[in-house]
Task: inverse folding
């Protein structure tokens, strides 16, 4: 009988001197802003909770609160602004690095420009935010009227059930995610603010790439590809570019915030969040 040499067998148990994640020391804490929708909030304390805890594991003061899941940009922006002022008061922070996913990026651009947050925000890093809109919004709005109204009714009922502090308005929110609205109305009236660093990540999976995609989102991914080219099944790659574009992620819209991540793709997610934190550190933020 061939026996495995003890030293070779025990090699797998060899201890690292520092098994904990590397510390990423930032000057300012991180506020994490979630996007449109509330279904993920019934699967975790908040849509960005898992990402938040990952940053806390790096030694970063990070917060991932909840706001109304379905509402206009201005309404959501007011809630983010209120939370920032509250956290500043409670913890004595001078300012934040904001990390915003999807619609949250538009919320925070509005809040910084129009709600006097330029002194409270040092940087805004957006992840797959529709800075130039998304054809998915047009697809939703072009559904038959009866179906569209019923979908909005269900979304509003659900939104107000899980977040009763604010009336939901799912249809109005979708209307503000169309390419026409964002490029013709939102962007011209929401310029970047001097003194705030703007970073962005885009993403693409499925059609036009070699990256896998959950079959549930295959149809919308393909329909969006016909209109916008490569996308992450919710936001077009090109639409997500704003400020200093860092790179295009090979992650789907939900993988970016650590939902529906298979074991073999988890290292991609882990590397992305470490990279995002290190970018803030590198820029002295």
Result:
């Amino acid at each position: 009988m061939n026996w495995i040499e003890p030293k070779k067998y025990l090699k797998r148990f060899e201890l690292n001197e520092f098994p904990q994640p590397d510390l990423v020391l930032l000057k300012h804490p991180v506020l994490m802003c979630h996007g449109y929708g509330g279904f993920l909030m019934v699967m975790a304390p908040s849509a960005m909770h898992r990402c938040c805890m990952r940053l806390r594991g790096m030694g970063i003061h990070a917060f991932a609160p909840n706001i109304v899941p379905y509402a206009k940009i201005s309404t959501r922006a007011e809630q983010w602004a209120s939370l920032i002022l509250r956290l500043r008061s409670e913890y004595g922070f001078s300012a934040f690095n904001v990390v915003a996913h999807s619609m949250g990026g538009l919320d925070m651009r509005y809040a910084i420009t129009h709600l006097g947050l330029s002194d409270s925000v040092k940087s805004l890093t957006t992840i797959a935010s529709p800075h130039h809109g998304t054809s998915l919004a047009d697809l939703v709005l072009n559904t038959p009227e009866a179906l569209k109204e019923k979908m909005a009714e269900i979304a509003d009922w659900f939104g107000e059930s899980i977040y009763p502090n604010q009336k939901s308005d799912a249809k109005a929110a979708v209307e503000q995610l169309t390419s026409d609205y964002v490029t013709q109305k939102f962007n011209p009236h929401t310029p970047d603010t001097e003194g705030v660093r703007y970073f962005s990540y885009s993403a693409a999976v499925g059609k036009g790439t070699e990256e896998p995609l959950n079959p549930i989102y295959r149809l919308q991914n393909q329909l969006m590809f016909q209109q916008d080219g490569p996308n992450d099944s919710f936001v077009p790659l090109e639409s997500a570019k704003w400020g200093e574009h860092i790179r295009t992620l090979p992650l789907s819209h939900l993988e970016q915030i650590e939902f529906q991540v298979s074991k073999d793709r988890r290292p991609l997610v882990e590397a992305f969040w470490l990279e995002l934190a290190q970018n803030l550190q590198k820029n002295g933020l």
In short: Residues 87 and 222 are 41 Å apart (CA to CA).
